[in-house]
Design goal:
Pfam families: Abhydrolase_1 (PF00561)
Number of domains: 1
Order of helices and strands: EEEHEHEHEHHHHHHHHEHHEHH
CATH architecture: 3-Layer(aba) Sandwich
Keywords: Hydrolase
CATH class: Alpha Beta
Strand order of the largest sheet: 1-2-4-3-5-6-7-8
Structural class: alpha/beta
Organism: Deinococcus radiophilus
Oligomer: single chain
Distance between the termini: 30 Å
Radius of gyration: 17 Å
Protein name: Alpha/beta hydrolase
Helix content: 40-55%
Number of helices: 15
Strand content: 15-25%
Number of strands: 8
InterPro entries: AB_hydrolase_1, AB_hydrolase_fold, Epox_hydrolase-like
Length: about 290
């Protein structure tokens, strides 16, 4: 897994981040989603490393990266705090400019990075996501039924107790899932979901979303602040972006001042595992033509 990549643990101001790097060329930061770790990129990252210096960290609160300390408003788990930590990581690795692609929960940190440090972000790619404030403003009965976990995870204590009672049952455990993910990726993910500290960190990511992240998004929207970098939006045909939002790009036009493009991919939600070649090709075409 990740042949030719280097695995390290980078000490940052807020804590230590596990990160894997490989390839050469312009820097590309890949941010995973819930409940995965950076190893979700194990099929796509080597394809991208043929053209780019690929950086794959575990998000703060996930995998083997530091779990932010609990704070009022869950500000340590806010996407602003995570974007700041990963900006520090990129500087520590010697990069002054980079493209960032984020999937699922990672897409919120990627968006926040593009908004907060636009002088460093050359391109933004969002995979299966819309801004948190947009998701909540557009929430209806269908959203509540399909994304109920957003609101359950916002409750104190109960989510951790429910998940840790049987993490394999909560997230799904089967030989078929292991084969689909790849054995090494699957074992890394399973180690994460059985760690009580990581479960708390991942749930805190959602709690921050409904409080601090939402307020950050709403402040940007009120101020007319938009992404200046070229932006690519990709969504899985077999997931619910299309059902929930119809024209996904129309949602993003409110947030992007620069070039905006996007399309669906023929796969389920975990596109880096299910359609790595198609994802890598779409990212490469976007980065080379914008």
């Amino acid at each position: 897994m990740f042949e030719g990549f280097e695995l390290s643990h980078a000490p940052l101001s807020a804590g230590t981040v596990r990160v894997r790097t490989g390839g050469s060329g312009p820097a590309l930061l890949l941010l995973h989603g819930h409940p995965r770790t950076h190893t979700t990129w194990h099929r796509a990252a080597p394809l991208l490393a043929q053209h780019y210096t690929v950086v794959c960290p575990d998000l703060p609160g996930f995998g083997q990266s530091f779990v932010p300390a609990d704070q009022p408003g869950h500000v340590g788990s806010s996407k602003r705090a995570k974007a700041a930590a990963l900006t520090e990581l990129m500087h520590q690795l010697g990069h002054s400019h980079w493209a960032v692609a984020g999937h699922d929960r990672g897409s919120y940190t990627a968006l926040r990075m593009a908004l907060d440090v636009p002088q460093h972000v050359t391109h933004l790619a969002v995979l299966d996501g819309v801004p948190i404030a947009e998701a909540l403003a557009r929430a209806d009965a269908r959203f509540a039924q399909e994304w109920w976990h957003w609101f359950f995870f916002a409750q104190p204590d109960k989510p951790e107790r429910a998940i840790l009672a049987d993490p394999d049952a909560w997230y799904g455990h089967s030989p078929e899932k292991a084969a689909q993910m790849g054995q090494d990726n699957y074992q890394d993910y399973r180690a994460a979901i059985h760690d009580p500290a990581v479960i708390h960190g991942m749930v805190e990511d959602y709690r921050a979303g409904l409080v601090t992240d939402r307020s950050h998004d709403e402040a940007d929207r009120a101020a007319g602040r938009q992404v200046q970098a070229p932006t690519l939006v990709l969504w899985a045909e077999q997931d619910d972006m299309g059902r929930l939002y119809g024209d996904v790009l129309a949602v993003w036009r409110l947030w992007v001042a620069g070039h905006l493009s996007g399309h669906s991919l023929p796969c389920g939600h975990h596109m880096a595992e299910e359609a790595p070649a198609e994802l890598a090709a779409a990212l490469h075409q976007f980065l080379e033509t914008n």
